[in-house]
Amino acid sequence: MAKSIRKICFISPKGYPVYNPECREVFGGAEVDLYHIATELAKDPNYQVSCIVADYGQTRIESIENVSLIKSLNFKSGQISGAKKIWQAMKDADADIYFIKTASAGTFLAALFCKTHKKKFVYRSAHTDHCDGTWLKKHPLAGRFFKWALKHAAVRFVQNESDITALKATTGLDSIAIANAHRPQPQTHNERKHILWAGRSAKFKQPELFIELASLNPDYHFVMICQRSTCDTEYNRIKEKAIQIANLEFIERVPYNEIGKYFAEAKMLVNTSTAEGFPNTFIQAAMAGAPILSLNVDPDGFLEKHKCGICTRNTKELNTALETIIENFHSYSEAAIEYANVRHNISTTIVSYKKVFESL
Question: How far apart are alpha carbons 244 and 140 in whole angstroms?
Fold first, then answer.
């Protein structure tokens, strides 16, 4: 007996540039994660997959990698207009399950739509701050709506085991940990040319610490791929500071389908964030054999446990750890590749998602 078709809609307004590299607008790790889940799911004929994206001037509905992209809000319009367009796009999708990865008004809107239309609402955390109460404390009013949305989710996914405990402690709600995942990359034998930083200019990512690290290590070439984060008024100052460092190459943006070569040519990836969930850049680096040098962020202690890199607890340790990784590059590199291909392979993790979707 043939399986019935399951219709799943992902809500990812800033996700369109990941699907279409010609669109040179900002996106983040959440959009990359949903892109991989959606496109992998769309390979299965038993799933009909759609994704609600923002208005970037594209046609109302287009199909990329078997995912139907439904145009909705324009970021330049007001919130009420945007909410109406998201609501209408959700109606147009006519899905059984709606899946979102954010802590915003959109989370409440999606949950409310699903409750009103008797659909299944699925939430996935985008950051540890969304689980441990940090975001709730910063946004007490919006936090009430966010907690309501989480309470009405059919299932809640988080990115690491620690966030299961954190979410339970702050909301009393259970969740399931599924790691971010990518498509395995073919191994190349590129020359390792630079020390890499890649991300948005969001304040919590502390991009200026990487600039300082580059200035302290003039014998190494550093590359900083730094997109302007939404509403960032400090971006030009950061950029000006970066371009004054002779051994630091500052790149404003690289399309998602072209960024792999920067990881493949990296001596290591440096992460300077105060906190994360599980950065997609960690996976991209590990799959490309680039060890990870991280300040603060080590989800579930994987860097230490799997020897993929080093996590330091203060900026003074960064320099020492940088030299340690360079001296032991091959050991860290091989461990990173092995870890990523086992733990973060989308063809493996999609099985876990499907089991949950089928139970719904």
Answer: 41
310 phi/psi in degrees, rounded to 5: -135, 135
Q: Compute the distance between CA of residue 224 and CA of residue 308 in angstroms, rounded to an integer.
A: 21
Say which residues have a Cβ less than 8 Å from residue 51's Cβ, sequence separation at least 6.
9, 10, 11, 12, 15, 19, 34, 38, 67, 68, 69, 70
Per-residue pLDDT of the chain in tens (360 residues, 90 and over written 9): 456 899 999 999 999 999 999 998 989 999 999 999 999 999 999 999 999 999 999 999 999 999 999 999 999 888 999 999 999 999 999 999 999 999 999 999 999 999 999 999 999 999 999 999 999 999 999 999 999 999 999 999 999 999 999 999 999 999 999 999 999 877 777 799 999 999 999 999 999 999 999 999 999 999 999 999 888 899 999 999 999 999 999 999 999 989 999 999 999 999 999 989 899 999 999 999 999 999 999 998 999 999 999 999 888 899 999 999 999 999 999 999 999 999 999 999 999 999 999 999
Residue 342, exposed/middle/buried by CB under 10 A (0-12, 13-18, 19+)?
exposed
Q: How far apart are the first and last CA of the chain?
A: 19
- Exposure string over 14-27, b if 16+ CB within 10 A, otherwise e: bbbbbbbeebeeeb
Give which of 263, 268, 248, 260 is closest to 323, Cα–Cα: 268
- Give phi and psi for 146, each to the nearest 5: -65, -45
With H, G, I as helix, E, B as strand and everything else as coil, classify residue 293. strand
Indicate the pTM of the whole model.
Answer: 0.90
How many CB atoms lie under 10 A from the CB of residue 33? 27
